[in-house]
Write a structure and sequence with these properties.
The structure holds three protein chains of three kinds. By secondary structure, chain A is mainly alpha-helical. Chain A contains six helices and no strands. Classes of the chains: A mainly alpha, B mainly alpha, C mainly alpha. The A-C interface holds A 1, 3-4, 20, 27, 31, 34-35, 45-47, 49-50, 53-54, 57, 96, 100, 103-104, 107-108, 110-111, 202, 205-206, 209-210, 212-213, 216-217, 219-220, 223-224, 226-227, 230-231, 233 and C 1-7, 9-11, 13-15, 17-18, 21-22, 25-26, 28-29, 32-33, 35-36, 39-40, 42-43, 46-47, 50.
C-alpha cells in the first residue's frame, strides 16, 4: 500500500509531520518578526508589513505554476499519471496562494490608496494569472476521460505559463512602470528572508499532503477496478 | 487526397496537403455559410448594443471606440471558433483526417488559416459598419495591420482551445473562459495601438504595442503548432 | 481601515486560510484512508473466498 506507507523517524513522526511542524514554526516566527521585529517603513507606514506575507505567497504561487508547466511538458512526453497528479496539485495550490495574494493586495490597497481594487499593474497581473489557472481547474472538471483531462490540462498549463511574461509585459506597459524601493534595511531583509523560508516550507508541506491524497484516490479507483474483476471471475 | 493514400503511394507534398486541407474547410463553409453568418450577425449586434450602452455620453463615443471594436471582434471570433469546431465534431471529419497519411502539423496550419480566413472576412464587414456607427476612420492601413496582427494571435490560441473546449461538457462556456485570460496581452496591445491610430497619432507611437503583438503571435503560433497534435489524439 | 488594522486582518485571513486548507486536506485524507482500508479488507476476503 503506497498511499499510507511512510518512513517513520526516530520519535515516531513521519517526514511529512516534521516538514509540517517546521513550516508552522517558521510561520510563527515570521509573523512575530513581521509584526514586532521589523521596523515600521517610513514611506508606507504600518501597511507595509503586509508585504512580508504578500511577497512570499506570490512566489509560492509562481512556484506552483512553474510545477504545472514542467509537469505538463513531462506528462506529454512520458504519459505517466504521476506527472498529472503533480501538475493538478500544484495548480490548486497556485490558485490558493494567488487568491490570498489578491485578497491581501486589495486590503493593502485599501489601507494605502483607500480603495480595495485599482487597475494597478501588479494587482492586474496577478488577477489575470488567477483567471488563467482558474480556467485550468475548470477545464479539468469539465472534461470526462481521465487521460484526456491530463493531456488537455498539460496543453493549457504550458500555454498559460508561456503567457505569464507576456501578460506581465503588457500590463506594465499599459499602466506605466512603478518605482521599486531600492535597498532595504537589514531587519526588513531578515524578516522577508524568514517569511520566504516559512512559505516555501508551507508550500512543500501542503503540496505533499495534496499529492498524497490524490495518489490515495487513484489507488482507490484501481482497487475498485480490481474488485470488479474479481467479481466477474 | 483519396488516390494518394495507399500504402505505397508517394507522399503528397506538404504544400499540396496544406492546400487540400484548407480547401476542405473553406469549401464546406462556402456551401453552408454557417460560421461566417453567425459571426457577422453577432459582431454587428455587439456593435449595436455598445452603441446603445454608451449613447448617453455621446462625446466619449470615439474614446471607447477601439475597445468596442475589439470586444465585438473577440466575441464574434469566439463564437465562430466554437461553431466551426462543433460542426467539425458533428461531421467527424477531423477523425477521418487523422487516419490519413498527412503531416499533423499541416492539419494545424490548415485549421489556423481557415479560422484566420473566417475572422478576416468577418472583420472586413465589421470595420465599415464600425466606421459608420461610431464615426471614426478605422479603414486605414495602420489599423488594418494592427487588427490582422491581433487576429493572428487570437486565431493561433483559439485554434487549439477550440479543439479542446468542444470536447468538454460545457463547450460553449469553456472556450471564452479558456481563451480570454490568455488573450489579455493581445487585447491590451490591439486596443492601445488601434486607439493611437484612431486618434491620428503617428504610426511610430504604436511600436511598443505592435512589438508586443508580434511577440505574442510568434510565441503562440509556435507553441500551438507544437501542441495541437496532443489535442488531436483520440479526437472525436 | 487604518494601517495596522489592515495588517492584522490580512495576517488573520492568511493564517486562517492556511489552517483551513490543512484541515480540509487532512480530513479528506482520513476519509480516503478509511475507504482504502475497507477496500483492502474486501479484496483480501474475496481472495480467501476462492
Amino acid at each position: 500500500m503506497q498511499a499510507g506507507m511512510q518512513k517513520k523517524t526516530a520519535c515516531g513522526l513521519t517526514a511529512t509531520d516534521v516538514l509540517g511542524a517546521a513550516a508552522f514554526v517558521l510561520l510563527g516566527v515570521s509573523v512575530y518578526m513581521a509584526l514586532l521585529y521589523a521596523p515600521t517603513e517610513l514611506i508606507q507606514g504600518e501597511p507595509q508589513r503586509i508585504f512580508y506575507m504578500h511577497l512570499p505567497m506570490i512566489l509560492a504561487a509562481y512556484l506552483g505554476f512553474l510545477i504545472v508547466f514542467v509537469c505538463g511538458v513531462m506528462y506529454l512526453w512520458k504519459r505517466t499519471m504521476g506527472y498529472d497528479i503533480a501538475a493538478r496539485s500544484a495548480a490548486e495550490l497556485g490558485v490558493f496562494f494567488t487568491t490570498l495574494v489578491i485578497i491581501s493586495g486589495g486590503l493593502w490597497g485599501q489601507a494605502v490608496w483607500g480603495t480595495f481594487w485599482q487597475w494597478e499593474p501588479r494587482l492586474t497581473f496577478t488577477f489575470i494569472l488567477w483567471l488563467i489557472f482558474v480556467a485550468y481547474l475548470m477545464l479539468r472538471s469539465a472534461a470526462q476521460d481521465k487521460e484526456r483531462v491530463a493531456r488537455y490540462a498539460a496543453v493549457l498549463g504550458i500555454i498559460g505559463f508561456l503567457d505569464i511574461p507576456l501578460v506581465f509585459a503588457s500590463v506594465y506597459l499599459w499602466r506605466g512602470i512603478h518605482p521599486e524601493p531600492a535597498g532595504m534595511p537589514r531587519a526588513i531583509a531578515m524578516t522577508l528572508f524568514v517569511s520566504m523560508a516559512a512559505f516555501l516550507a508551507l508550500f512543500a508541506y501542503l503540496y505533499v499532503l495534496r499529492v498524497r491524497w490524490d495518489r490515495a484516490k487513484d489507488r482507490i479507483e484501481e482497487m475498485y477496478a480490481e474488485l470488479e474483476e474479481e467479481h466477474q471471475a | 487526397m483519396s488516390k494518394d493514400t495507399g500504402p505505397g503511394a508517394p507522399r503528397v507534398r506538404y504544400a499540396q496537403q496544406l492546400g487540400a486541407l484548407l480547401w476542405k474547410d473553406l469549401a464546406i463553409e462556402l456551401r453552408t455559410r454557417d460560421t461566417i453568418a453567425a459571426m457577422l450577425v453577432f459582431g454587428v449586434l455587439s456593435l449595436t448594443v455598445f452603441n446603445f450602452a454608451f449613447e448617453l455620453r455621446a462625446e466619449s463615443l470615439v474614446l471607447v471606440a477601439p475597445g468596442v471594436l475589439w470586444v465585438a471582434v473577440l466575441f464574434a471570433g469566439t463564437l465562430g471558433l466554437g461553431r466551426a469546431y462543433s460542426h467539425e465534431r458533428e461531421r467527424g471529419s477531423l477523425e477521418g483526417l487523422l487516419l490519413c497519411p498527412v503531416d499533423h502539423s499541416a492539419i494545424y496550419l490548415a485549421k489556423l488559416l481557415a479560422n484566420l480566413a473566417y475572422l478576416a472576412l468577418a472583420e472586413a464587414v465589421l470595420l465599415p459598419v464600425f466606421d459608420a456607427f461610431f464615426g471614426v476612420e478605422a479603414l486605414q492601413p495602420g489599423v488594418v495591420a494592427v487588427i490582422l496582427l491581433g487576429t493572428v494571435g487570437f486565431a493561433s490560441v483559439g485554434t487549439v482551445f477550440g479543439a479542446m473546449a468542444v470536447q468538454t461538457r460545457a463547450r460553449e462556456v469553456m472556450l471564452p473562459i479558456l481563451l480570454l485570460p490568455v488573450l489579455v496581452p493581445v487585447i491590451i496591445g490591439s486596443v492601445k495601438a488601434t486607439g493611437i491610430l484612431l486618434d491620428g497619432r503617428p504610426w511610430s507611437d504604436t511600436w511598443v504595442w505592435v512589438n508586443l503583438l508580434i511577440v505574442f503571435d510568434v510565441v503562440y503560433v509556435a507553441a500551438s503548432f507544437a501542441l495541437y497534435e496532443y489535442v488531436l489524439e483520440d479526437w472525436g | 481601515m487604518s494601517g495596522i488594522t489592515a495588517v492584522y486582518v490580512v495576517f488573520a485571513i492568511v493564517i486562517a486560510s492556511i489552517f483551513g486548507y490543512v484541515f480540509l486536506l487532512s480530513r479528506r485524507q482520513r476519509e480516503v484512508e478509511l475507504e482504502l482500508d475497507d477496500l483492502q479488507a474486501r479484496l483480501a476476503e474475496k481472495g480467501k473466498g476462492r
